[in-house]
Amino acid sequence: MSPADLFPPAPGHIGTDESGKGDYFGPLVIAGFYCPDDQVPLLRELGVRDSKAISDNRVREIAAALREGTIHSLVVIGPEKYNELYAKFRNLNKLLAWGHARVIENILSRVDCAQAITDQFGDERFVLNALMQKGRTIDLVQRPRGEEDIAVAAASVLARAEFIRRLEDLSGEWGVDLHKGAGPPVEAAAAAFLRRHGPDALPKVAKMHFKTTEKVLRLV
User: Fold this and answer.
1) Which sign, positive or negative, has the C-alpha torsion 97, 163, 20, 77?
2) Which of 44, 45, 109, 118 is such that its CA lies 20 to 30 A from the CA of 212?
3) What are 86-125's pLDDT values in tens digits?
4) Are β-strands 28-36 and 12-19 bridged in parallel, bridged antiparallel, or unpaired?
5) Contact criterion met (CB below 8 Å) for 105 and 30
């Protein structure tokens, strides 16, 4: 009889998701959430679903409840570190895979779990290769619309709440309203930031590989 038979993994699974991937300003936040099987009804009653379908205020409320008494992990990559890592990886999916692997490993250090589900964002091998010894024993499932899974949805809420908080902190620190996303309001905010602080400060708040950078530098 193997040790796995004597001490089977805890019933439940891990979900991971990220926030800030498509936002020019602010960090990239990857979250992982361990969902015991018996907590699924409670999470649904709490209103857990894909964070993109929830208002910012409600995301904060649900995230505050999720942080109480649960096993979860956050990896926050601020703009400066993000730009450094992106220059190293030269591939956003590899950077994402590194973050997802870290939160899975962090959770596995606290609970023995047999499965992790992530939203599909690239080659599954990216995440598998980034996992360390313990993580490589897990059944990793990547699937489109991963947020339909309750654990992935919970992770998306935690990640979005942290992204919003960090973006607001950056806005306050630099005295410029740094908008979410990457559309015209973001370009206007980037132009205002450049006029106030200059181009050398931009990597402290923005993801420099976005086309927004070249556009606003040309305009200002």
Assistant:
1) negative
2) 118
3) 998 888 888 888 889 899 999 999 998 989 998 776 666 6
4) antiparallel
5) no
Q: Which helix (H) or strand (E) holds 93?
A: helix 92-108
Q: 13 by DSSP, 3-state: which?
A: strand
What are the phi and psi torsion angles at 18 (to 5°)? -135, 165
Measured distance CA(170)–CA(2) in Å, rounded:
51
Taking the alpha carbons at both ends of the chain, their separation in whole angstroms is 69
Tell me the DSSP string of 18-30.
EESTT-SBS-EEE
Quote the DSSP letter at residue 51: G
Residue 115 tokens read as 């499965």
For residue range 159-183, list pLDDT tens digits in order.
999 999 999 999 999 999 999 998 8
How would you classify the pairing of strands 12-19 and 115-119?
A: parallel
Query: Using alpha carbons only, what angle is made at residue 84 by residues 23 and 122, rounded to the nearest 5 degrees?
Result: 60
∠ CA 163-166-170, rounded to 5°: 135
Q: Please say whether the beta carbons of 38 and 70 come within 8 A.
A: no
* Residue 59 Ramachandran class (φ > 0 left, ψ -120 to 50 alpha, else beta): alpha
Tokens (6 digits) for 41:
């009804």
Domain definitions of the chain by residue range? 9-168
